[in-house]
Amino acid sequence: MTATELGMPGLDGVPTTDVAQTKKEFSSDQEVRWCPGCGDYAVLAAVQGFLPDLGLARENIVFISGIGCAARFPYYMNTYGLHSIHGRAPAIATGLAASRPDLSVWVVTGDGDALSIGGNHLMHALRRNVNMTILLFNNRIYGLTKGQYSPTSEQGKITKSTPMGSLDAPFNPISLALGAEATFVARTIDSDRAHLTSVLHAAAAHRGTSLVEIYQNCNIFNDGAFEILKNRDTREEVLIRLEHGEPVRFGANAEHGIRRNPNTAGLEVCGGDDPAVVVHDAQAPDPSRAFALSRLADPGTLARTPIGIFRQVERPTYGDLMNDQVDQAVATQGPGDLAGLLHGGDTWTVE
Amino acid sequence: MTAKEVRELDRVVIRFAGDSGDGMQLTGDRFTAETASFGNDLSTLPNFPAEIRAPAGTLPGVSSFQLHFADHDILTPGDAPDVLVAMNPAALKANLADLPKGATIIADTAEFTSRALKKVGYTSNPLEDGSLASYKVHAVDLTGMTMKALEPFGLSRKEASRSKNMFALGLLSWMYGRSIDGTVTFLQSKFATKAAIRDANISAVKAGWNYGETTEDFAVSYQIKPAPTPPGTYRNITGNTALSYGLVAASRQSSLPLFLGSYPITPASDILHEMSKHKKFGVRTFQAEDEIAGVGAALGASFGGSLGVTTTSGPGVALKSETVGLAVALELPLIIVDVQRGGPSTGLPTKTEQADLLQAMFGRNSEAPTPIVAPASPADCFEMALEAARIAVTYRTPVFLLSDGYLANGSEPWAIPDVETLPTIDPGFATEPNHHSDDSAEFWPYLRDPQTLARPWAIPGTAGLEHRVGGLEKADGTGNVSYDPTNHDYMVRTRQAKVDGVDVPDLEVDDPTGDARLLVLGWGSTYGPIGAGVRRARRAGHSVAQAHLRYLNPLPANTGEILHRYERVLLPEMNLGQLAMLLRARYLIDIIGYNQVRGLPFKAEELADIIMKEDDQL
Fold it and tell me: CB-based contact (8 Å) between A1 and chain B?
């Protein structure tokens, strides 16, 4: 069966194996060196645990990262891996994914790497729809450089570099990705293994650039940043779980809902039994509703934070189009003939 | 009508000059193509402004194309034009200073209006006020005659006058006995879907030719016999085209699909344009969001087993530096083509310079050596592109190929090589574990080839060789992240030793009499002007040796011995002495620099003067 027939078009062309794989096989022999208690451990375990389910030839999987704590990720995966330079992983991955359609390409990045120094590459990878999955570990802080505010830090953040509070407004990665024409945009949380795994599965299945924002706790420099979304006592009141085709409701007893605000283009909270509660359509061609959902959360308190798949639409990938042009050129002009090329144009012969 | 006199010349330099919208580059290209087919040796120098359409009729908007052709082997586009075709007053004013007394000027009188003259500061018409008395002036109504010839086509005034460059081409073709057949064929194909434009341009070329044939104004035409050349099939080629073909050839010879990641920048963009036409060779071209992404994507493709290439100019190299450093650490093949231009910063985008040598050599953090090669002429770009690929693939290293604006756009005849004789480049991908212990077989990505010091290149998809590479220092052998001081010292020295040990051919010296005391050394595009200057000096009785470096890192093994062989070494460079600095430091020898950064190639005459002056002092 092909990956497409299995409902995984994103992996079409990647060789599979019939031999059962284990999490251990996906773990390299390198000692993991994140701080004890770091949310990265949970994501690593989830990825290593879920990849065997895909049944891909391990040698056809590549993890590429930039710089930052999360960027050490490839060293811990027993796949091919490339730990590159700050912000450039999406660009490097673009060259690899476009030239090697038989690979499953994963980019591991953070809020500083992807949204600050590498913002340009992220945005253009999304627009081009290169077939790869980008895991954006968002801890709202710079960890590796020891605690400066990041482009997703809340305004007024007191850090080593901003003793009187940060001045700049934060990026909303989901809004940014939607604005950059992304075809797959999702958010999940490091500590929710089941949700994380289901989103990773959907992201891998998607053909095109899948952006997965993972709320990840930095227990050293920004501990508890997402606590309200994780704590059993608070999370049901603030977390909105998006499910395609389901009404958007939240609260311990689904007592809250989301409906359109008739006076603005946006969304607002209503009662869970309000007949106007919207049904989530991740596949809607128009990204407006997905964008409105991405604006629901309060950037300061994280109240009304949706998680799940915001958008999942089909659009040809850059690599497929590029390779189609190569195939088409060969089909219409025949394979390249170097002597013919060199002798093209006006030539003359001296006897 | 009696047949007109035909005078024989051994060489001519013609410069076509007009507004940047006048089609001077096309006119020059067509004249060059006909001249090449005729069998003259030739060399060209386009010169155009960075602005696409500077205000019409102004000095900054002047675009020109110079062509030197001869019945013998020539090396440069010529110091000074024998003939200037000036399509307007600005073109005359901008170029007059380059003309020797007695040169011929053909000027389009229709454009010498009082308004146009005033625009460039002429208070009277130079075609009429006697100020050009020391030149042979042909004041010709090129525009008017073109319009008249095109009356039957029902074109607007603007459209018809646009063909005046073709009229000028026809006239010059008659003057120098060039055929216009190739140009007619060219126009038929270029304007295949625009019949009126096609026919108008063809008529304009023919009208120009016929005008020369019939008018009393041009009493003489000239003949320049074909140059004796070794047997073979030839074509005229620019550096950027030759470089592109060299890259396509390198892909074929290495059986590696080529991936070009690039961002448009003058004067390198034409390589991207050319390469994008060759998809049937499996060439993938990626116009990236910026210079950094261009080289990043190329490096990513190299990681996957492509021949990764990025093309740019100096400002782009500055942006790519960090990624080139990563490629040094990853030890993956990568070709960085730098078509150098005037700097610093944006500098002179369309003018030539060779001042990126030290940037290529040292422009990265820490100890990050890269091989550097530099073609000596437009046609040489083909071979040096193949050489860059050979070194990159064999030694798993980024390689700089330093071209420049003069090589990129200049052209010369090229003896097309037999593709069956091109060298093979073996990627030698790793397919098996390379480290065996009692109970296991592992793949160690930094276990080197003892000869080349190259590490194995195992590409994704190869089962059992899964490994991780990255910018953090790696342990020798295993490739695991290592902060060990001794290992780092070893790795720094080993990367340097690998580059130092790259196999490059010896430097050849041209010292025909064997008694020269002065060596004139050069690198890159100065080969032609230095060679022409050396010839002049020799004709004047000087014994002078010439050597030209095409490999700058590592330098050929015999470089020091050759430099020490001569009493004096003169090194002309289009920078303030960058190679001289490297050679002085390396060989403890005093190099006499001759340096100019005018955005233009050296002139043969000025180099001959300085060569003879230096020789006289010995």
Answer: no
Q: Which residues of B touch A74 (CB under 8 A)?
A: 468, 470
Q: Of B307, B416, B466, B481, which to mutate for an interface test with A (greatest number of A Cβ within 10 Å)?
A: B466
Are B461 and A75 an interchain contact pair (Cβ–Cβ within 8 Å)?
A: no
Report which of A13, A125, A11, A23 is spatially closest to residue A66, judged by C-alpha positions. A125
How would you write the pLDDT of chain A (351 residues) with one tens digit per residue?
456 556 899 999 999 999 999 999 999 999 999 999 999 999 999 999 999 999 999 999 999 999 999 999 999 999 999 999 999 999 999 999 999 999 999 999 999 999 999 999 999 999 999 999 999 999 999 999 999 999 999 999 999 999 999 999 999 999 999 999 999 999 999 999 999 999 999 999 999 999 999 999 999 999 999 999 999 999 999 999 999 999 999 999 999 999 999 899 899 999 999 999 999 999 999 999 999 999 999 998 999 999 999 999 999 999 999 999 999 999 999 999 999 999 998 888 988
Q: Is A146 inside a domain boundary?
A: yes
Which of B595, B263, B604, B267 is CA-nearest to residue B406? B267
Chain B CB within 8 Å of residue A334 CB = yes
Domain assignment of residue A235, yes or no? no
Q: Domain total for chain B?
A: 4
Q: Which of residues 385-414 of B touch A (CB under 8 A)?
A: none
Residue A283 lies in a domain: no
Looking at the partner chain, which of A85, A335, A339 has a beta carbon nearest the beta carbon of B419? A339
* B69 & B188 share domain: yes
> Residue A85 belongs to a domain with what CATH number?
3.40.50.970
Which residue segment(s) compose the domain that B529 sits in? 509-616
A19 touches chain B (CB under 8 A): no
Residue B228 belongs to a domain: no
Going edge to edge, which strands form the sheet with B411-415? Answer: A347-350, B232-238, B411-415
Q: What is the CATH number of the domain that holds B582?
A: 3.40.50.920
Q: Is B411 left (phi over 0), alpha (psi -120 to 50) or beta?
A: beta
Alpha carbon B145 to its chain centroid, in Å, reads: 37
Give the span between the Cα atoms of A319 and B301, in whole angstroms: 12
- Asked if residue B230 belongs to a domain, the reply is no
Domain that holds residue A54: 9-225+314-342
